[in-house]
Write a structure and sequence with these properties.
The chain is α/β, with parallel strands linked by helices and 228 residues long. The protein contains 5 helices and 6 strands; from the N terminus they run E-E-E-E-H-E-H-E-H-H-H. Strands 1, 2, 3, 4, 5 and 6 form a 6-stranded mixed beta sheet that branches. Strand 1 and strand 2 form a beta hairpin.
């Protein structure tokens, strides 16, 4: 498990978050589903302020589809229990005619992630991949490096988040902030404060039992793989 954050952000005590007045801190977790590697990214946001909490990967283990899915589910539950987000954000399934198998595999992983959210009582916000890319880069066809640079800029990181699975997970969490939280803050006249500078890249690590999961990246069905 990654070490404690030197400047821990407020943790919501309920799905509404904590804070002052009508704008409260809300913790959002984004997931980038993959059969071998699933990225996750957690941010705290309030109006126009956003800051990184933690980001990392969950690696599946096992020889069969069902055992791999079981380890993904276990890792996701570990993230949700440890970091207590108020809401989950995830991309909708994108099916590319040239890569149907990727969409099928990603759909399996996405399903167990949504199952873990339901078991934890979290609402799940779904966003089209092209919408997430367009929101952060201005192009719905942005590649992996563009997305990593966009996430680095949004969170004021010293370096681009690695691996790409982590950047994709943070991207969908940031999309949820922009579309659902930040716009509301701007409407209330409290969203003009820029995100505080973060001097270091996101803390990354593997979750679940064991802490570092096995499996390689071959055939991994991560979000945006087909159209990157």
């Amino acid at each position: 498990m990654p070490p404690p954050s030197p400047t821990p952000a407020p943790r919501p005590s309920s799905p509404g978050g904590v804070g002052d007045g009508s704008l409260r801190w809300q913790r959002v977790v984004g997931f980038d589903p993959g059969l071998n590697v699933t990225g996750y990214g957690v941010i705290d946001c309030r109006g126009g302020i956003v800051r990184l909490v933690e980001a990392g990967t969950i690696r599946s283990r096992g020889e069969t589809l069902e055992t791999r899915l079981a380890t993904i589910h276990e890792g996701v539950r570990d993230v949700l229990q440890a970091l207590a987000p108020a809401v989950m954000a995830i991309e909708q399934v994108f099916v590319h005619a040239k890569f149907p198998r990727t969409a099928i595999l990603m759909g399996h992983a996405r399903g167990v992630i949504c199952l873990a959210a339901a078991q934890a009582g979290l609402s799940v916000n779904n966003y089209p991949p092209a919408r997430v890319k367009s929101l952060l880069t201005g192009s719905g066809q942005a590649g992996k490096e563009q997305m990593q640079s966009a996430v680095q800029r949004e969170l004021a990181l010293a370096a681009r988040p690695e691996p790409a699975d982590v950047a994709d997970a943070l991207a969908v969490a940031l999309a949820d902030w922009h579309l659902r939280i930040r716009q509301r803050g701007l409407a209330l006249g409290r969203g003009a404060t820029p995100a505080p500078r973060r001097p270091a890249p996101p803390r990354t690590g593997s979750r679940g039992a064991p802490r570092k999961r096995g499996g390689d990246d071959e055939g991994n069905a991560s979000l945006g793989e087909d159209d990157a």
